[in-house]
Amino acid sequence: MTTERVSHRAANFIVVTTIAVVTTLSLDMIVPSLTVISRDLATSYPNAQLTIGVFLFAYAFSQLTVNSVTAVLGEKKALVCALLLYTVGSIVCYLAPSIIVLLVGRVLQALGSAYGPVLARAIVRTQFEGSELKSKLADLATVAAIVPIIAPILGGYLTAVSGWRSNFIVLIVFGIAALLTVQLLFRFQNGQTVNRSRGSLDTLTKLFSDNGFRSGLILLSATYSMIFVYVSLAPRICVEDYHLEPHHFSYLFGMSIILYLLGTRLATVRFLEGKSRWFSLLTLVASTLALTAALSPKYLVIPFEVFVLSACLFNLSAGYFFPLGQSLLLSGQKNISAAASSYGSFVQTVSAALISLLATYLSNRTGAYIAVFACAMLTVGILQHAVASSARWQTKR
Questions:
Q1: How many angstroms separate the CA atoms of 323 and 327, rounded?
Q2: Which has the least CB within 10 A, 101, 113, 130, 309?
C-alpha cells in the first residue's frame, strides 16, 4: 500500500469520525436545557421534550434518503449539502422565538445529521476489510459512546452560564467545522458506496438475501433496542424500587457507559475474535440475574446489587456486539454499503423506539418493571446467541 493511499485513508477516517458524532451531540447536548427552554419559550415541559422526539422521528426517516441522494450527488456533495442543512437548522434553533420555530429547526438539524453516521460507516466499509474493518467500526463506536458522556455536561454548563441558546451556538460552530473538515480533508472517489445501476427494490432484495446483512441487522436492532429499554426503565427501577437517589443513579449510568466502551475495545482484541458466543452468554447471565432480582423478596438488600451487576454485564456485552453487528451488516459488496448502512440504521432506530415504548407500556400496566426489563434482556440474549452460533456467517467472515 502506497504512502499516499495510507495518508488518504487516515484523512478520511478523521472526516468519518467527525461526521459520525453529529447526531449524538445534537441529541444529548440539549437534554439538560429542556426545563429552561420550556420556561423561556412559555410552553409546557412535554412540548419542550418534543425537541427530542421530533428530532428522532425526522432522523429515522432521513436515513432512508441517504442511498438515493448519494447515488445522485456522490458522497462528498451529499455530505456537504447535509451539513449545510444541519447548520441552517442549528441557526433556526438559535434564533427561535417560539417552540414551533424551534421544532422546525430541530427537524432541519435531524434531516441533515442522518447523513453523517450512515455514510461514515459506508465509507469505512469501502476502505477496510475483515478484522481491520471491525476494528475501525469499534473505534467509531467508542467515539460515539464518549460523546453522550461529554455532551450533557457541556450542555448543562453552557445553559447555566449563558442560557440554552448557547448550546446551539456550539452546534452551529460544529456544523461549520464539520463542513470545513469534509472540504479540506476528504479524499474519496465518488460513487464507491452506491450502485447507480441498481434500483431501490433491487438493492433491498439483494441486501435481505445476504445472510451477513440479516445477521448484523438482528444483532444491532436487538442490542440497540435493549439499550433503549435500559435507558427507559433503569432510572425508574433504581429510584422507585430500590430508593436510590437520582444523583447516585448517574454513577450507575456512567459505569454502564464505561463498560460499553470497554466492550467496544474488547471487540478489537484478536484473542476474542470468533468468541461472540461468550458475550451472548454474558447477556443471558445478565437476564438471569435480573430475573433473580425481580423474584427476590423485597426485604432483601441483595436484589439491588444483583440488578446493578445485570446492567453492567449487559452493557459490556452490548459494546462488544455493536462493531461486530455493523461489520456483518456491511459485509456485502462495497458498492451497496451506503444502502446497507442506511436501511440498517433505519430498522435499528425504529425497532429501538417501538420496543422501548412497548416495554414502558407493559411496565406501567403491570407494575413489574424489573420483570419486563429481565424478559426483554432474555429475548435479546437468545437472539444474540442464535446469530453468534450461526456457522454460516462465521465461515463467510
A1: 6
A2: 130
In 10 A of CB 192, how many CB atoms?
18
Residue 363: pLDDT over 90: no
Number of Cα atoms under 13 Å in the Cβ half of residue 66 = 37
* Cα distance between residue 236 and residue 368, in whole Å: 11
pLDDT tens digits for range 179-218: 999 998 888 777 788 877 666 777 888 888 888 899 999 9
- CA 228 – CA 218 distance, rounded (Å): 15
Query: Using one digit for the tens of pLDDT, what is the confidence trace for 64-87?
Result: 999 889 988 999 999 999 999 999
Handedness of CA 333, 335, 339, 342 (dihedral sign): positive
Instruction: Using alpha carbons, select from 92, 79, 70 the residue that is nearest to residue 22.
Output: 79
Amino acid identity of 206?
A: K
Going by C-alpha positions, the residue among 197, 164, 145, 198 that lies closest to residue 37 is 164
- Sign of CA pseudo-dihedral 118, 123, 124, 125: positive
CB of 101 closer than 8 Å to CB of 37: no
Amino acid at 7: S
Tell me the residue ranges of DSSP E strands in 185-303: none
User: Which of 144, 300, 288, 150 has the alpha carbon at shortest distance from 224?
Assistant: 144
Q: Which three cell numbers stand for residue 305?
A: 446489587
Q: Which residues of 237-256 are buried (b: 16+ CB within 10 A; e: fewer)?
A: bbeebbebeeeebeebbeeb
Centre a 10 Å sphere on the Cβ of residue 273 and count the other Cβ atoms it contains.
14
Q: Is 369 exposed, middle or buried (0-12, 13-18, 19+ CB in 10 A)?
A: buried
Sorted by sequence, the CB contacts under 8 Å of residue 293 that are 6+ apart come out as 303, 304, 306, 307, 310, 370, 374
pTM of the model: 0.85
For residue 50, CA distances in Å to 7, 31, 45, 357 come to 43, 11, 9, 15
pLDDT given at position 7? 66
Q: Specify the length of the chain in residues.
A: 397
Rounded-to-integer distance, Cα 90 and Cα 73, Å: 23
CB 191 within 8 A of CB 72: no
Task: Count the neighbouring beta carbons within 10 Å of the beta carbon of residue 93.
Answer: 27
3-state secondary structure of 209: coil
- Measured CA to CA, the distance from residue 119 to residue 292 in angstroms comes to 42
